[in-house]
Design goal:
Helix content is about 20%, strand content about 25%. By secondary structure, it is α+β, with helices and mostly antiparallel strands. The strands form 2 sheets. Strands 1, 3, 4, 5, 7 and 8 form a 6-stranded mixed β-sheet that branches.
Length: about 220
């Protein structure tokens, strides 16, 4: 029975394929006719009822200018160069280039210590500064006015040697006090400065020391009037 069914299907298989292909062809023909016959619709652009304002271009009036050529500058004047008319006069000077100088006397050797290095050096900031052991007040001159009494102060610099004696003194500053404030003076009269310097030379100090040895050093003290 299986053999019979197989033989029948083989007999009808060409007719089935032809009918299937014919049906596909008819469907395609129908689709093509439908597309061609289908009415076409045109798309219309809608009209706008309002006007779009357009910017107006403003143009300024162009002024046409004419370029004029300026005349060339006048030539520079020629300045005449002066011709020297000086006359050179040659003068012979009678000068003795080898004058007869007197013989100078021979210089005797001095006694300074600058060459042998035995002078005492000054220590600017010793470990132990000089200490005052005797004060001598300056005398007050008779002609000093009353308005200066009790208002003058002087700063005096002392150079103290290794023996405690004063070698040099100088006044570094003069102050005049008024109501607690002071002004610096360059100079003061009435013999006050001389009296201060004379008294300062009589002061005595304990010499300064550096590494346990006495050295020469400066110190500063005040004198009040």
């Amino acid at each position: 029975m299986f053999a019979d069914n197989h033989s029948n299907r083989s007999a009808f298989e060409p007719g089935y394929r032809n009918r299937f292909l014919t049906a596909i062809a008819l469907i395609q023909i129908i689709l093509i006719i439908t597309i061609k016959v289908w009415p076409s619709s045109e798309y219309k652009i809608p009209e706008l009822d309002y006007d779009i304002p357009r910017p107006e271009a403003l143009m300024d009036e162009i002024q046409i200018t004419e370029q004029r050529t300026s005349p060339p500058p006048p030539p520079k004047p020629i300045i005449p160069q002066p011709i020297p008319s000086d006359e050179i006069i040659e003068v012979e000077l009678d000068i003795d280039l080898e004058p007869d100088l007197p013989e100078l006397p021979d210089i005797e050797p001095g006694f300074g210590t600058g060459f042998d290095g035995t002078e005492e050096r000054i220590v600017s900031n010793p470990q132990v500064p000089p200490t005052v052991v005797r004060i001598v007040e300056a005398s007050t001159p008779d002609e000093i006015p009353d308005e200066l009494k009790g208002r003058i102060e002087m700063i005096v610099n002392f150079l103290v040697d290794t023996n405690g004696e004063v070698e040099e003194v100088s006044i570094s500053e003069i102050r005049k006090y008024t109501n607690g404030d002071y002004e610096q003076l360059e100079f003061i009269r009435y013999g006050i400065m001389d009296a201060v310097l004379i008294a300062a030379m009589q002061w005595r100090f304990r010499p300064a020391r550096q590494d346990g040895e006495p050295v020469k050093a400066f110190t500063r003290q005040r004198f009040n009037y």
